[in-house]
Amino acid sequence: MVQIHAPPFMIFNRFWRFLAPLIPLPSLILGMSTAQTAQYRLSALKIELAPQEPFTVLAIANTGNVPLDFKVRVQQWQQRATGEDELHLLPANSLELVAFPNLLHLPVGGRAEIRIGHRLPAADVERTYRLLVAEIPPAPQGIGSETRLVTVHSLPVFIKPAVIRRQGQLLNAQVQQGTLQMTVSNRGNVHIEADQITIRGLAENGQQLFELRPQREYVLAGVTRPLMPMPLPQDQCAAVRSLQIVLDIAANPPTTQIERPTGVCR
């Protein structure tokens, strides 16, 4: 049986007793695993809430062969122009964004749900948080006992505004030594994900030689920040004469092009 250690959020708890049966449990997605045999799965790697859908659940399952303990906390999340995150831990009794329960014990094969919700009024700009699901290290079993690494998942949580406006721009796209560098300016009121960008390498005759997407990064509303440099395929890069870069967030997506008659990677 799964043991849940719950804080005294009685009003929130009573509300969830009514609401929880109405929310389907999502299918499980493989999460990270620790060294040795501790393994677990999370049902999502990103959480999105809306004014009409202010609550959801995150399922966690112990798929390894050792019991696991977790602590759950919530952080406010903002970004600097340099791309660095600014994180501020919410007090455990805060009702700004509630994750309940905040302590979990999962025996082998056990499964539990973390209920996540808010009662904030609709805002003009998306609210952003990070949900920390941290494995608690097991107590030492004595001299000579093995040390096991533990993991911390930091899941983005987005509370959407009442009216969504998606607007962005690609800036300063350039290739240096076979690596693409660019900046994304988010002028909308919701986040942009870097994997919404498509990069196509085109030969001199217009033939597409490759298509890539950056690894997932987030550019929050109102932020202009550089993305991580992206290496281009070296086996095809010499034949590329132009790079087409598309930010697919709207019907007429922002597009930029890098043209080099002698080769993009030179």
Can you walk through the features of this model?
Helices cover 5% and strands 45% of the residues. The termini are far apart. The chain folds into 2 domains: 3-159, Sandwich (Immunoglobulin-like); 168-259, Immunoglobulin-like (Sandwich), CATH 2.60.40.10. Mean pLDDT is 84; it is low at 1-35. With 266 residues, it is mainly beta. The chain has helices at residues 10-19, 234-237, and strands at residues 3-5, 29-33, 39-42, 47-49, 55-62, 68-79, 85-89, 98-100, 103-106, 111-117, 127-135, 152-159, 168-176, 179-186, 192-193, 197-202, 208-212, 218-219, 224-226, 230-231, 242-247, 255-259. It contains 2 helices and 22 strands.
Keywords:
single chain, 266 residues, mainly beta, Immunoglobulin-like, 2 domains, seven-stranded mixed sheet, five-stranded antiparallel sheet, globular
